[in-house]
Amino acid sequence: MSIKKELLTTLVTIKDILSNSKYFGITIITSVVAFAVLYYFMLATVADMSLRIAVDMSGASYIYGTIASIILLSGLFGIYLSLIVYKFSFAFVGRKGLFGIGGGFIGALGVGCPTCGALLLGLFGAPLALMYFPFQGAELRIAGIIILAFSVHFIAKSIDKSCKLS
Questions:
Q1: How far is CA 39 from CA 34, 54, 76, 153, in A?
Q2: Mean pLDDT across the chain, nearest whole number?
Q3: Helices and strands, number each (H, E), in the chain
Q4: Rounded (10°) CA dihedral 49, 55, 58, 59
Q5: What is the rounded CA–CA span in Å between residue 46 and residue 56?
């Protein structure tokens, strides 16, 4: 099967599942909560939790790029969780479920101010670790987005083959 046809099949599967209000609701709620948590992580180490101060410290392009990646991560994670819930209604997900959770976690590691320290990396004893990455953590967010996108694709692909879409 060609890549284009496979991606189209994946998108149709996702569209069919999200046309159900239950799964669309799960996607929206999960995405909003994930965005709020990741946005908080981004500002947790900034004085007064101020977006303006974060922009002054790290630059507008870095902060707005971070917010754009947070939106992508949150949306993909919401879709991913909806597909997992749908899949669980038919069968156990197994390792594929851990793959997507890992993508979300890796993406969350890159959220934060490189000069103040990322909150999650601080929990591991490396609060200023983002400063040592070539792109100050953007590569972690991009890796998380890629892993989540592949996870969504693989879950949707397995749903298309094993579950009946109504």
A1: 8, 12, 16, 26
A2: 75
A3: 7, 0
A4: 170
A5: 11
